[in-house]
Amino acid sequence: MYEFLKDLDKRWIFLLMFLSVTIPIYIIAKTGKSFPEVPTVLSEAVFQAVEDLDEGDPVLLSFDFDPASEGELGPMATAFVRHCAEKKVKMYFMALWPVGPQMIDDAIARVIHSDFSHLVYGMDYVNMGFKPGNEGVIKVIVTDMRELYTTDDIGTSIDDIPMMKDIENVQDFELVINVSAGYAGTKEWVQYASTPYPDKIKIVAGCTGVQAPLLYPYIPNQLPGLLGAIKGAAEYEKLVVDKYGGDNPDPKYLEAKRRMGPQLVAHLLIILLIILANYIYFVERKRGVSV
Amino acid sequence: MRREALISTSLLVLGALYLTGRVFFTEHGMGKAYVRAVEVKSLETDPEISWTKYENATQRSYHEAVIKDPDQAVYQFSLSRTLGTWVAALFTLFILSFLYKDNPLYKIAESVVVGVSAAYWMVVAFWTTIVPNLLGKLSPGWIKSWAMPGLNTEAEFIYLVPLTMGVMLLWRLAPKGSWISRWPLAFIIGTTAGIRLIGFLHADFLGQIRNTIIPLVVSSPETGFSFWDSVKNIIIIIGVLSAIVYFFFSIEHKGFVGKTAKLGIWFLMITFGAAFGYTVMGRIALLAIRVEFLLNDWLWLIDPSHARVLM
Amino acid sequence: MKTKFIHIIFLAFIFSGMNVCLQGQDVPGPGAPGNLSASDHPWDHGEKIDLEWLLSKDDPGTVAFYSIFKSDPANPGSFLFVGNTDPGVNRFTIEKLNREETYFFKVTVMDDSGNESEPAVTLTAISPSRQWFDGRRFPLFIITLIFCGSVVYWIYHARSGRPLQIRKIAGLEAVDEAVGRATEMGRSILFIPGIQDMNEIQTIAGITVLSRVAKVAAEYDAKVEVPTSRSLVMTAARETVQASFLTAGRPESYNQDLVYYVTDEQFGYVAYVQGMMVREKPAACFYMGAFFAESLILAETGNTIGAIQVAGTAMPAQLPFFVAACDYTLIGEEFFAASAYLSGEPDQLGSLKGQDVGKVIVAAGIIIGVFLLTLGTIVGPETSLGTAFITAAEYLKSVILT
Amino acid sequence: MKRNVPLLITALGGFILIIAYFIPATQGWGEVAAIWFDILASIAFILGGGNLLKIHLKKISDKRVGWAYSAITLAAFLITLFVGLGKVGVNPNPLYPDYGLSGHYREIGSPFWWLYEYAFKPLTATMFAMLAFYISSAAFRAFRAKNIEAILLLGTAFIILLGRTFAGVYLTAWLPDWMSGLKIENLTVFIMSVFNTAGNRAIMIGIALGIASTSLKVLLGVDRSYLGSGED
Q1: What residues make up the domain containing A92?
Q2: pLDDT by residue (tens digit) across B14-51?
Q3: Which of A202, A270, B154, B236 has an alpha carbon 20 to 30 Å from C369's alpha carbon atom?
Q4: Which of D93, D139, D144 has its CB closest to that of A270?
Q5: Spatial separation of the C-alpha atoms in residues D36 and B49, rounded to whole Å
Q6: Which range of residues forms the domain containing residue B62?
């Protein structure tokens, strides 16, 4: 055992990793079964923040991610848009990342076009597109939206969009939902929007696993709710589907829950690897091999 | 070495055979993409111009439309997107092949990604920065006439300053006087230093001190003394202070300071462990979506979103 | 005195008379607030005006809240609702006003039964004015001055030749060692200044470390390769490496083609660097700057080819991976200190001492604040002493540290 | 001149922005500088792109090892640039049908979109996904309980990994209520909101100080390696 493990080629580990992701995906897709989820406090808080909105409230959704993190954040974006659509709030999409508008279009196509096709562009939702400048954009639009956003993503003048009439700046939104994969993202939204205007701007966020630990210092004062990585997405999905899903929810609303399967197996693999690594280490120490 | 080459060649051949079999000898095939044709009309009524936009569609919707009306033209098979799916799948495999070892297929993928992505960001910079934020500010009339018909602003000549600095920057390409390009560089570095100095002192430095001012003893008239919240606060304060001691540069880590610094590094290690654990999650999700793409969109082995009818 | 007394009697008479008159009809409104005055909010951006008024005669009593209104510049004569205050409060700051407009204000009282009083109205128009200094940032200004002052002081202190005691940082000795080993093996050195642009201080710090690495490499006549993911970083890195070769006395060995641009795309860049590392097998790899997800790809590939790896970054999320996979990692502040250490110039070391002063401010701020809050909690917020402690702590948090 | 003027520009630019931060009328200058930086970085693409062309053309003309790959890079670069800058195959904005270039540069169905969707996206996303493999090999190699630091690192990672899956919840579900603090999902939250918060705060404070002092050194001209030698 020790001899085998000591000189184990990395590529065997790679193969194991590949299998531990592929096999669960295949099995879950074939059988349609996945593992149960128990929502944690932070996911509940996010759900509740959206749940507390009234019909017609303006909500800003900033999608600050790119295709590279779509695996983690796409399901969250889907669930957020769906929840907002179910609550009949007005959705204003924007992006701090250059490819963000593409993510917005994807989410709109996935949820609004297919299941909420009665919603009208410009009346119920609008895609304001990407603006370069990272946190600079946030700093400007917290006091004046029109200084940067003179048109929407496809070039329609802001003044021609009915739902923009009552919006002067970010403080006019009832809630800011941020889905972010890094800089600029949730941290910047918290620093430059909810920190200076604690009474006027409320932010909930969904972020990648890498970012989550860095955001904990802001919870709960500056950031009341946070969905961390695919697990957060799966928990939030469950809450939304339980309330609005009906008996036979569309599989696209359970994407994160499905993806928790490979997650579990791969986590167990890594845990196993850590245990084996320490087994090797202790055997080596016992035998007096210098390490 | 020869054995290795033999194995990899036979794997490639087997894979190719499997794909051929799946494409040509199964009824449904694989990796095909469909579109829905949507007519877009210009919003101006006169003169009316229209064109067709193609949205992604599923095989299921295509199949159902054909059953309803065999002559329909709304749903169509898309050759370019089918080709795209295959290209994307092969590129995915090419990159993953690096895990086995460096090879020509990986090198092809690498060359393509460097070329495409470099040009991609240049195009994005041109259409989102140069056109609206530089040319659009300097000569809105001109930009309005060909690129941004919705633009309605006055010219702002202050943007001549960044334009001039940009030209100075490009002066490097000239045979003489390339030192002039240091001026805009100096401007960038100076303004960056200024903004970051004050920004970090304000947001991170003061902000984190402020967040750390918490009572050691948590108690409120409604709920009374809370033991666990008190413990939490005490740990946070000890952790922050001891880790700061670790970063002290002017004192050697000996004696009491050394012990405190040691405690500080323990806190840092726990922090790193937590970050590692959280990150694993995200990375696996990324792999999962690639595998899903291969199995679902390309090989048509699984169908979690019920997008297809397999004939 | 006497006339005033008569006045009051008279007024009381009239009021009681009114009361009698109104009995049986609508319940009368509460007493109106008096003497509404508006003044510009000091030390601000020109968006706020402070209002102050005399409390209603029914306060304390039946007053539920005061409502504040501002005139609507777009629609003269009409007022817009701004906000409410609790009974007993006689001031309010109106925000988000426009410097170019003039405003009137009015305040009314609402009582428990939902009756609204006559309004108190400002008689003259006022517009907010902008001051030359933002008063909220005054404490920040002082703290900035103290911090910068102490850095400058210690730099001068060091320049005057007096000795400074600075502790060792493990990763730094490794720099020279790694360069030396690369030379011995006849292989190249890879230096990556992060993947952010020049508007990131970490990149600038990375470039500073590069100047040292390039200088040592020039002395040993080793090859340093610097692929960059930003055009401006390429420009700055070329300047730096060229200068280092000049300082080392070997300007003729400088080859600008070794500092080159790859692509702005994070993963395109890392795909290139990963392939390049496996093919060229550099003996030493330096990762100094702002890194994101690519950190582990680089560090694991470097590990596979057996390179000595030294990393330095201030990206907290990437530190664990560098710590796990590299030989030496400069954590956060240590990375910024590295440039000072490596330069070997005394004035640079002085700046580290200045940073320590900053840490003392942190510790003092935290300890004082925590002490005040804890005492306040122990004594009890219901006692006046406890309230005083808590107020002091809140002052520290919300005024000094914002 | 060649050296002192840049130093002066650096110092002036920085100190003016610091002071501007405290003056209400000029607080927006930092954002203006950021926009200008964006413009400069975009113009600098000409330098980067030129360099890329130069390197690969040279490799091809020298017929160096692997020159064919350079040809692929070059072709990919030029094609993408052409279809992107020219908005090839992009329909106009429905609002302004007379303006051929008013459409979005990445309109669905256009060649530039195709390159993005079927080359850029899968290639970069797969590169990112490679991390799943590297993280497993790193865990196997580096996570050994050599000393207390390493034990803390791997122990925490262990708990978090377990706690983020259904398995961890299942493993500790039997714990009675009074010990619910030890249930793995609660333990995870405790570690994150206490230890992780403390560690991250200290790191953030240290970084802020490091950045402020590095910036100051740059502004004072103590650290000026980026300015090169001062020779032409």
Answers
A1: 41-249
A2: 999 999 999 999 888 899 999 999 888 776 656 677 88
A3: A202
A4: D139
A5: 39
A6: 34-77
